[in-house]
Design brief:
globular, 7 strands, about 200 residues, 3-stranded antiparallel β-sheet, 4-stranded antiparallel β-sheet, alpha+beta
């Protein structure tokens, strides 16, 4: 399922100019491909989460688009402040939103890995997508819950703030997650925006 989703994201990344609608369509297509693959192989229940960052054209202006389905996340480090841009689609996040669970307690809740949206669903999941103006010097982290389930946001901010090379920062985050537990697969991508708003 993950491979099919990645293939579709690679395909849409070649579109120029890229628009937010292209990403939304690619997410829908990825979902359909996963469903079709499950039917063909007799393996129902194939699924994956998805999160990403794209540089899109919005009304002719270069903009950032952040999107997610599930509990994989996108963070933004801007002027030294780390912000979680995506909202988890999970049972514990819904409890946090309702004020029935503290964020710290959500990290260790027994149902913390139960997602409410994923690719491979019928009907298709609705992806969250935000478009905003890029700011030179911003750093973005795209990661799976294998990272955020092991280390806290302040630790993520520390590594992103102190390791200049984006590849090294991504590798250090994975190493840190594996060192403290490594209970799940950990995927990380770190993207820096240049002065002209490109990555």
């Amino acid at each position: 399922a993950s491979e099919l989703a990645i293939d579709e994201m690679v395909r849409v990344a070649s579109v120029s100019p890229l628009h937010a609608e292209d990403i939304t369509t690619a997410i829908w297509t990825a979902n359909q491909r996963i469903l079709d693959a499950g039917r063909e192989r007799g393996r129902f229940g194939l699924g994956t989460t998805l999160a990403g960052l794209g540089l899109v054209s919005a009304a002719g202006v270069a903009s950032c688009a952040v999107f997610n389905v599930g509990d994989s996340r996108v963070y933004r480090l801007s002027r030294g402040v780390l912000s979680q841009l995506t909202r988890d689609h999970s049972e514990v996040q819904e409890l946090v939103d309702l004020g029935q669970l503290e964020r710290a307690a959500a990290r260790v809740h027994p149902r913390r890995n139960v997602v409410t949206r994923s690719l491979g669903s019928d009907p298709p999941p609705v992806a969250d997508l935000w478009v905003f103006a890029p700011e030179a010097g911003d750093r973005f982290l795209i990661c799976s819950d294998g990272l955020t389930g092991e280390i806290e946001d302040h630790e993520i901010a520390d590594i992103l703030s102190t390791i200049a090379d984006p590849q090294q920062a991504a590798e250090d985050l994975v190493l840190r997650a594996n060192t403290v537990g490594g209970h799940d697969n950990t995927s990380t991508v770190v993207v820096d925006l240049a002065a002209d708003g490109t990555s």
